[in-house]
Amino acid sequence: MTKYTSPTKKARICRDKAAGMSDADIAKKFGLHRTTVKRIFDRYAKSEQYYELKQKTGRPCLFTKHDTRHAVHALASGKVCDVAELQRKHFPHINPETIRSRLKQCGLRAYVRRTKPYLSATHRQKRLEWANAHAHWT
């Protein structure tokens, strides 16, 4: 992944290069590689349009970062139990495989949740009595 270089840093690099500093000195000053300094200078020296962003190539993502956060929250809170239900309720225009792959990138994985044993009021009472009776074991 490439490191982000702010527009202010790009302007300073171009200013230092125009002042006569070498690529290696500028790179050391800003903590970049010297070829990065050369590329930035070649790209922005003439136009000085540091804040202008190029339009991204390729198809825009249908499932955005915000959608990913929403999906993780819905799964974690128990509003939905699996990706198929999540897709039906919240993202009908997105393929479930797309959602699964994005959730996998976030570190979530599919598994069958263990069932929690039912504890009735009598079970809880008996557990409390046992715990009180054995409180001083250690």
Radius of gyration: 28 Å
- So how many helices? 7
Sequence of secondary-structure elements: HHHHHHH
Report how far the terminal alpha carbons are from each other.
53 Å
Sheet having the most strands: none
Structural class by sheet pairing and helices: mainly alpha
Q: pLDDT under 50 segments (min length 5)?
A: none
Strand content: under 5%
Quaternary: single chain
- What overall geometry do the principal axes of the alpha carbons give? elongated
- What is the tally of beta strands? 0
| Helical proportion, percent range | 40-55%
What is the overall pLDDT average? 88
Short précis:
By secondary structure, the chain is mainly α. Helices cover 54% and strands 0% of the residues.
Feature tags:
single chain, 138 residues, 7 helices
Task: Describe the protein.
By secondary structure, the chain is mainly alpha-helical. Helices cover 54% and strands 0% of the residues. It has helices spanning 7-18, 23-30, 34-44, 65-77, 83-89, 96-105, 121-133.
